[in-house]
Amino acid sequence: MGERLSVASGEEMTLEQATDISRGLAQYFQHVANALDPKPKKKKKLRNPNVPKRPPGAYFLWVADNREKLKDENPESKGREFHRILGGTWNKLPDKKKEAYIHRAQRLKEKWVEEKENMKTAGEKETEDDNDDAEDGDGPEEDKEEEDKEEEDKEEEEEQLEEEIKEEPKPKKKAKKVRKKEKKDKPSKKRKQS
């Protein structure tokens, strides 16, 4: 047997028992540490710097124009309290004053949508042109001619396949009848079991 150790409580145990206990405690403390640690944060996707940023809404345009004025009127308010003042002031504004900011926000949004669409179409055109020109070094006119030839070739192949299908002989019906008779002669699985 192994070496005996005396424990603080006065009991004796073997070295193996002590190592088992210490391993168990180590696993427990590791589990507790993992539970207390926050989950790893997700990595942000890298943003394309060329894509236009989404424009601010009407409220944020109003805040940009009036923040300093309200900050001077309420120097003691900070953080959440100040934002409550901003929101309350915006809600109390008459609709006529809000309309100017709403229209401005709509115009900015329309401009943003156009820029975004232009960027998508420009990006698609560039990649298509780059790919076509890089393949053979020809210009767009030669590329059109090549595409037309490819379409004609495909149509000819389809016509040839259709003709071949029409010319193929149809399978004989007698073969099916013979198979049916063979099946009737063979005992089915159900008959064998009973």
Task: Looking at this protein, list some descriptive labels.
mainly alpha; two-stranded antiparallel sheet; 71% helix
> What is the CA-atom radius of gyration, in angstroms?
40 Å
The number of helical segments is 7
Largest sheet: 2 strands, antiparallel
Characterize the overall form.
flat
Separation of the first and last Cα atoms: 66 Å
Average of the residue pLDDT scores: 76
Percentage of residues in strands: under 5%
Structural class by helix and strand composition: mainly alpha
Helical percent range?
A: over 70%
Extract low-pLDDT stretches: none
* Topology, number of strands: 2
Question: Helices and strands in order, then pairings?
Answer:
Elements: E1 4-6, E2 12-14, H1 15-36, H2 58-73, H3 80-92, H4 95-136, H5 140-167, H6 174-185, H7 189-193
Could you walk me through the main structural features you see in this protein, from its secondary elements to its overall organization?
The protein has helices at 15-36, 58-73, 80-92, 95-136, 140-167, 174-185, 189-193; strands at 4-6, 12-14. With 194 residues, the chain is mainly alpha-helical. A hairpin with a 5-residue loop joins strand 1 (4-6) and strand 2. Helix 2 packs across helix 3 and helix 2 (58-73) packs across helix 4. The chain is flat and about 95 Å long. The mean pLDDT is 76.
Short account of what is shown:
The protein is mostly helical. The chain has helices spanning 15-36, 58-73, 80-92, 95-136, 140-167, 174-185, 189-193; strands at residues 4-6, 12-14.
